[in-house]
Amino acid sequence: MPLTDARGQNIPYSTMQDKPNAQTLGQGIVNGVVDKLVMPYNSATVRGASIPVPTAGMVTYLKDVKLLQVYDGAAWVTVLSSPVTPLTWVNVTMPSAYVAYSSNTVAPRVRREGSIVYLEGRLKRSDDKNIPIADPITVGTVPTAYRPIGHYAEGIVSITNAGTGAPTGRIEIKNDTGEILLSTDKATPWVGFSSWWFVN
User: How far, in Å, CA of 137 to CA of 182, rounded?
Assistant: First the structure.
């Protein structure tokens, strides 16, 4: 009957009393070891298809977003991320109702530097009407490689308004869809992401 390694990793090996079977021996060792390795996958989608039921302690590397992640028993958690090369700004996809604030400002865009994702730019309604009081509305979508990992990101953004009083703007970036959700307490002509950032 096969025994297992002395380090408690449940990697089997045959004893002298086991019936010789090279395939069984090799398969047992391979299957016992592979889940202990850093397993590279092209994307989280490919990983999900290959590991439908992960176990705590598994480690994978996602090539598309350059993330080293470990499964903690409930979710894949990022251990280390590398810069997406080149370090350039990538445009946020906006609904047709929104455009860049002006020709002198950039439209919302993102950039990753290691585990930090930056968001900058200004937007307004394409019909030049005020963005209404909202809780919340979708004003853009962040590309997959720049979305929060395993959680959503939230923060305060710059807005202005034609009336009196100091308006407040809040955004949330959803980790699953990449949607940028805007909530405001007053109507505003524009929203600005002043080098807003979050850590994955």
Answer: 5
